[in-house]
């Protein structure tokens, strides 16, 4: 699933190519992507037709386009969603689901697996109420570091689970959690309340660094599904030190990276640099 850097790359592309444009027409080619909009496909299209896009914003992994009437087009890319800007008349993509005519060009929502979705958020231009519960992300200038550290240190869950909790911190997914934990030399099962304040602060810094580096490289693209609005793939996958590196030597100590099952997916870590926490734990020291 696209994480913060990949979604931010798409948002930046929408900001360059779509903001200021008027949605001259909207065509829903498959009803599933708009399944969460109570208006249905026809009402979804009618609510957007003729509206001007005022901005392109993001909260965690969600994107929204504020409109000139105070509403917003809210979207989530899911597993394979793409927002592509194409010239008018360009051949349709195989998995094209929704087409927005911009006059001289088109914005297209393409989604092979159809886990993504779009809806019109009434009055959601500033912040759609549908995502008001999503926490800010570490790259947000208003992210509260002290509050994050305090909340982590009150939790008994493993630190990787906490990084993936979108109500605690948004935008961090499996890839960047593994990379940040490797940089911080922390195993993902280390309980939040077992971490010193300095360890959480350091980890948060690594989360920011790894996502900023990924963003600079266009995100992480393991296949043709993760692309920007022009269809270009990112290349941060070449810089990964932990995620997807099973059986390869750790860049820091040479120990082979290990993979374990985690929440219906995988975790990758160095067993030497990131030792598995002991079953019997002693109180954390300040």
| Amount of beta strand | 15-25%
The figure for the number of domains is 2
Q: Given this structure, which CATH class of the largest domain is correct?
A: Alpha Beta
> Helix and strand succession?
HEHEEEEEEEHHHHEE
**Arrangement of strands in the largest sheet:** 1-6-7-5
CATH superfamily of the largest domain: MutM-like, N-terminal
Secondary-structure-derived class: alpha+beta
Q: Which of globular, elongated, flat, extended, rod-shaped describes the shape?
A: elongated
Any guess at the CATH architecture of the largest domain? Answer: Alpha-Beta Barrel
Low-confidence stretches: none
Largest sheet data:
4 strands, antiparallel
Topology, number of strands: 10
The first-to-last residue Cα distance is 37 Å
Rg over alpha carbons: 20 Å
Roughly what is the average pLDDT, rounded to an integer?
Answer: 89
Number of H/I helices: 6
In helices, the fraction of residues equals: 10-25%
What is the fold named in CATH at topology level of the largest domain? N-terminal domain of MutM-like DNA repair proteins
Brief description of this entry?
This protein is an alpha+beta fold. It has helices at 4-17, 40-48, 145-152, 159-163, 174-184, 197-216; strands at 25-28, 57-59, 62-66, 72-76, 81-87, 96-101, 105-111, 117-121, 258-262, 265-269.
Characterize the structure shown.
- By secondary structure, the protein is α+β, with helices and mostly antiparallel strands.
- It has 2 domains: 4-131, MutM-like, N-terminal (N-terminal domain of MutM-like DNA repair proteins, Alpha-Beta Barrel), CATH 3.20.190.10; 145-269, Orthogonal Bundle (Helicase, Ruva Protein, domain 3), CATH 1.10.8.
- Helices cover 23% and strands 18% of the residues.
- The protein contains 6 helices and 10 strands.
- It has helices at 4-17, 40-48, 145-152, 159-163, 174-184, 197-216; strands at residues 25-28, 57-59, 62-66, 72-76, 81-87, 96-101, 105-111, 117-121, 258-262, 265-269.
- Strands 1-6-7-5 form a 4-stranded antiparallel beta sheet. Strands 2-3-4-8 form a 4-stranded antiparallel beta sheet, with helices on one face. A two-stranded antiparallel sheet has the order 9-10.
- A hairpin with a 2-residue loop joins strand 2 and strand 3.
- The protein is elongated and about 60 Å long.
- It starts with a helix and ends in a 17-residue tail after the last strand.
- The mean pLDDT is 89.
């Amino acid at each position: 699933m696209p994480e913060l850097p990949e979604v931010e790359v798409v948002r930046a592309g929408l900001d360059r190519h779509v903001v200021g444009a008027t949605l001259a027409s909207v065509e829903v080619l498959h009803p599933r992507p708009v399944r969460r909009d109570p208006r249905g496909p026809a009402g979804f299209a009618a609510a957007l037709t003729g509206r001007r896009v005022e901005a392109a914003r993001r909260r965690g992994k969600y994107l929204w386009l504020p409109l000139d009437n105070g509403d917003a087009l809210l979207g989530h890319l899911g597993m394979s969603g793409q927002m592509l800007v194409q010239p008018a008349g360009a051949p349709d993509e195989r998995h094209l689901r929704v087409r927005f005519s911009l006059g001289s060009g088109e914005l297209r929502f393409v989604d092979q697996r159809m886990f993504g979705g779009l809806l019109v958020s009434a009055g959601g231009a500033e912040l759609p109420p549908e995502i008001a519960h999503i926490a800010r992300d570490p790259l947000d200038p208003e992210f509260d570091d002290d509050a994050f550290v305090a909340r982590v240190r009150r939790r008994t869950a493993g630190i990787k689970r906490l990084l993936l909790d979108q109500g605690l911190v948004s935008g961090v997914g499996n890839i960047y959690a593994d990379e940040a934990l490797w940089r911080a030399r922390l195993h993902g099962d280390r309980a939040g309340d077992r971490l010193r304040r300095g360890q959480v602060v350091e980890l948060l810094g690594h989360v920011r660094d790894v996502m900023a580096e990924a963003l600079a490289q266009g995100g992480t693209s393991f296949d043709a599904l993760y692309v920007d609005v022009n269809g270009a793939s990112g290349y941060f996958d070449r810089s990964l030190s932990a995620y997807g590196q099973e059986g390869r030597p750790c860049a820091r100590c040479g120990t082979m990276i290990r993979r374990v099952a985690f929440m219906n997916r995988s975790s990758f870590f160095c067993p030497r640099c990131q030792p598995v926490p002991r079953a019997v734990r002693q109180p954390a020291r300040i």
